[in-house]
Amino acid sequence: MKVIGLMSGTSADGVDAAVVDIAGRGHQLTLKLIAFRTYPYHADFRARLLKAMTEGGLREICHLNAALGDWFARAALRVRRLAALPTRDVVLIGSHGQTFQHAPVPRHERGIGKIRSTLQLGSPTVIAERTGIETVADFRTRDMAIGGQGAPLTPYLHHLLFQDSRRTRAVVNIGGISNLTFLPARGSLRAVRAFDTGPGNMIIDGVIRHLTNGRVTFDRGGRLGAKGRVHEGLLKRMQRHPYLRRRPPKSTGREEFGEEFLQDLIRAGRGPSVTPADLMATVTAYTAQTIADGQKFLSERVDEVLICGGGAKNVTLMRMLQKAWGSVPVQPVEALGWNGRALEAVAFAVFAYQALHGVPCNLPAVTGAKRAVVLGVTAPGAGRARTNSR
Hints:
By secondary structure, this protein is α/β, with parallel strands linked by helices. The chain has helices at 43-55, 58-82, 124-131, 140-145, 155-162, 201-211, 223-227, 232-238, 254-257, 259-268, 276-292, 315-325, 343-356, 364-367; strands at residues 2-8, 14-25, 28-40, 90-109, 113-121, 135-137, 169-174, 177-183, 193-199, 304-308, 330-332, 377-379. Helix 2 (58-82) runs parallel beside helix 3, helix 8 (232-238) crosses helix 11 and helix 11 (276-292) packs across helix 12 (315-325).
C-alpha cells in the first residue's frame, strides 16, 4: 500500500511529506521510502503560526486549522507528483498536523477528574476533500485519553527500523524538541523506552532569530556556534530547568521551552562577556548536554547512537554530542540508508496504515498509557467509500 505521511514539527517551519510503500501485518512491516520533500511555510504564515501558539484568539486558531488543512493537502499532492504516482495509487494519508498546545501533565477539572490535553491543527477533512484520499489524523489524543502522555510516538518506528540483534542502540530525533529512544539488543516492543529529553533546535533557532532580527531562522551547519565559547555560568543556569530532572514517561514542547524560556535566556546572556557567538555555542552545548544526560534514565549502556531530524545537519551540535557520549559512536541514520529528515513523516504514514488495519502502535511503557490502543481518527476520501480504499 502506498501511503503519504505528513508532519509539521515544533519548529513550525513547513510540512514534511513522504510517500511510503508499506507491506505486512501486525508489527512485521516492510517499509520503502519512495519520495520525500519539505514544503516550507511562507515566512509571514509561519510568523502567524508562532504568534498564535502563544497569543492566538479563537477566531485566528479556527482559521488556521482550516488553512493548515490546505497547506497539508497541497504538500500531499505535490509529493505524490514527485513520486510520479497517479491519485488512485495512493490510498491513505496519515497527518500529524501542527501542534499548537501539548499539556501532558494532567490538570484537575471539577466534576470530571484529571485531564490531559493536546491540540494539533490541520483539518483532516480538508485534506481528505482536497486530495480525495482517506486521511487519518489526531493520533495523540487516544493515547492521552487512556492516561498516556501522547508523546513520543515515533519510537514505534525506531523499533521497526533500527532494532538490532547484537547492538543496544539509542535513536535521537532532534527536531524542535529532542527525544531519545532506547532499543536494547534483541529487545521486543515492550522493551523500548523513550522520552523527550528537552529542546532540540527550538532554542538554537530562537536565539539566531533574535540575533538577526528574524533575518536568519537557523544556524546553518552550526557555523555561528562553532565560533563561540560556551559560557559555563549561563549553561548551568539553563540546566536547572525542572523538566530535566523529571523521570519518564515525560514529554514537552513550547509550553516549557518556548518564548518565555527564550526571553529569560536572552536577558541572562546580555553583557560584554557573552558575544553572539558565545550565546549560540552555549545554547548548542545545552541541547547536546540535555540529550546526552538522558543516559541517566536508561537501564544499560548503549553501543551506538543514531541521530535523525534536522539537528543532524548541525555539525557543531553533532561534535558536541559525540564528546558528551564519549567513546560511544554517534552517527546519522543516513549511515543505515535512511533519510533522517523523513522519519517523522514516515512514522505518520505507518500509524495511518496501522489504524486502517486495527493495529495498536502506541507504546504504554513509553507514554505511560494504561494499554496499547489504535491511534487516529479517519476522514473518508472525497467520493470514495472506505471499503474501496483498501
